[in-house]
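Shipment paperwork, digital attachment
Item: protein structure file
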Amino acid sequence: MPERRLDASALLHWADAAVDALVEHSVEINRLNVFPVADRDTGTNLVFTMRAARVEAGPAAGDGDLAAVAAALSRGAAAGARGNSGVILSQILRALADVTAGMAPDAAARGTLDAATLAETLHHAVRLTVAAMGGTVVPGTVVSVLQAAAGELARAADRGAVPAVALAAAGEAAAAALERTPDQLPVLAQAGVVDAGGLGLLVLIDALTGTAGGHARPRRRYRPAAPAAPARAGSGRRAPGPNGFEVMYRVDDGAPAAMERLRGELAGLGDSVLVAPAEAGAYSVHVHTGDAGAAVEAGLAAGPVSRIRISALQSERAAPGGWDRSRAVLAVVDGDGAERLFSSEGAAVLRAGAVAAGVVSATELLRAVIDTGAAQVMVLPNGYVPAEELVAGCTAGMSSGIDVVPVPAASMAQGLAALAVHDPDREAVEDGYAMARAAAATRHGSVRLATEAALTWSGPCRPGDALAIAGDEVLVVAADVGAAAARLIDLLLGAGGELVTVLAGAEAPEGLVDLLGAHVRVRYPGTELTGYLSGQHGDVVLIGVE
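Attachment content:
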């Protein structure tokens, strides 16, 4: 088996691969989720937690310092931990940070992980996880799978195995332990599933195995999940039961004795209690309880509390009528004019320009999906949501009991075309298909200003030149925006078209829409042009042709 050095770069590669793998399996993991409560969010929580770890590790990428990358992954996971499974994942990454920080000087200089160090990491992760649970371990959970993997990894290290071989053996042991979980935990046997968190851990180990071996992660045939109850239009979330709230927060400067008292108080208020050290005297706290206020008050008595998250647990889909409306369209837009335009057409709007870097994350998308108050949501990303964020956000929405249908609109021009054919009285699949067809039938492009000198497929450009772009190609280089936009319209209309839509951005010159309207009237009689002052940033003008 080929081997790759498990250095800082490889650790970041694993973090990326882990996010991708968890996204791929999140729905499957969610469906397995019956313990400790069947809230069907374990996979989603793992996705969010691992992605938070990877984002935090980004700034450490250039230093090539293994311990620094591991520490950043740990910080990110602790800050972004979601749910019971997220806190446990944060402890696994904290174990990695602890072990790499304590590596011998010669090993630290090499900056690589060997099989023995990996085994030490997993054993330390077991200790940290058990401590976070208050010393009580329920057989048949993720801890059982983690213990099996740690033991086999240590045995492989004793045999002198390289990391790729040792991790492959650990993965096989974890898979076997996962298959045994229904025999250890009656609730799993009754549901006919394996432990959801254990499957999530196996996905992470397989991703690391692939990284260490320099190849794709092993492709396993995981035990099929029990069929989920069919979703129905208008379905919503059930009212919380006795311990119907998940409460999470961070306690800073918590003394160990105070945190043990907090653990005891939370155990009296509910179950699924986790009190896990994060960093520098801080602790991540998790509990399922029927009295969320009392759980937060107990934390305040232990130290300063921050990052409070309270959510209603949902053990199954509720009866129809739990949502404000049956269907909504959520459009991601940029610009005041675009917000008014899409809102006037009946869409709920998420402003891309209101978030960092103008790119919408899965968390922001999920919140907007939920805020629509609809049981079915058609999402128009309009080019502002990266593919992995779109998948994670829509998956999380579906885990919350919402039927989410992403419509492939790569531009606000395509989004408007899709919105024009939206019909809430059709079946969701039919409505989504019609919207997707309308978006795909709209040829689109944009005009941007060059920020530096470069050589394009259409010739050289200088800073300030107007670039007409379709797809990823620069089709026109012109001295001004009007000329570039007019030429782009000519190219887009080359295959015919009845309607040209022009969305003028914040930097568009005054009178641009009128200029382009006159151009179309003269050159293309019978073709209509509709223009809007949308106010987006980056693209001076967006153009669509239907």
